[in-house]
Amino acid sequence: MIENQLDEVKLSVPSKPEYVGVVRLTLSAIASRIGFDVEKIEDMKVAVAEACTNAIMHGCRCAKDSKFNIDFVSNGEKLTISVYDDGKGCELESIQDPNLNEPKEGGLGIFIIKSLMDQVDIESEEGKGMMIKMIKYLGDDI
Ligand SMILES: Nc1ncnc2c1ncn2[C@@H]1O[C@H](COP(=O)(O)OP(=O)(O)O)[C@@H](O)[C@H]1O
Ligand SMILES: [Mg+2]
């Protein structure tokens, strides 16, 4: 028997807000199939919706047929979700944690993603899109 076999699902969806729900539903189905509990699935749904919204709002070149991608990879102990676009990207240094003592609208998406997921990696270069890779472990939080 092959141990830790990788199951992979790839989506390519139009850069339109109405498709965020499609990605959330797909995530729910995959995560419950793997055996995640409802609480972790809800956390992942919020995190993935934020990443998709960013890909649509900030990562789209605004071409009519613009798309972005979501990869789901599971290996029996964790689910890795990568959301990536080929939009304008940004300098990672310019993304700062919000000052929670001085709340303002916006600028919370990545902060929320980092607080809900177990591990988050962001790669981006100006002009070369962005990739946000998020991991949730099936077992107790590490
Ligand atoms: N996919 C993306 N492509 C380019 N820039 C991005 C992307 N995602 C996030 N960013 C940059 O990171 C910043 C912080 O994102 P976020 O925390 O979600 O806040 P908000 O979306 O409300 O501005 C954005 O304002 C944007 O400059
Ligand atoms: Mg955002």
Walk me through the structure.
25% of the residues are buried. Helix content is 30%, strand content 27%. The mean pLDDT is 92. The protein has one domain (7-137): 2-Layer Sandwich (Heat Shock Protein 90), CATH 3.30.565.10. The protein contains three helices and five strands. The chain is globular. The chain has helices spanning 20-34, 38-57, 109-116; strands spanning 7-14, 67-74, 78-85, 119-124, 130-137. The protein has a five-stranded antiparallel β-sheet, covered by helices on one side. It has 142 residues and is α+β, with helices and mostly antiparallel strands. α1 (20-34) packs antiparallel against α2 (38-57) and α2 (38-57) packs antiparallel against α3. Magnesium ion (MG) is lined by residues 50, 53-54, 109. Magnesium ion (MG) binds at residues 50, 53-54, 109.
Topology:
Layout: E1 7-14, H1 20-34, H2 38-57, E2 67-74, E3 78-85, H3 109-116, E4 119-124, E5 130-137
Antiparallel strand pairs: 1-2, 2-3, 3-5, 4-5
Helix pairs in contact: 1-2, 2-3
- Rg over alpha carbons: 15 Å
Instruction: Report strand order across the widest sheet.
Output: 1-2-3-5-4
- Give the CATH H-level superfamily: Histidine kinase-like ATPase, C-terminal domain
Instruction: Note the quaternary state here.
Output: single chain
Kindly identify the CATH topology: Heat Shock Protein 90
- Give the low-confidence spans: none
CATH class: Alpha Beta
From the spread of the alpha carbons, the general shape counts as: globular
Estimate nothing, just give the exact number of structural domains. Answer: 1
Mean pLDDT: 92
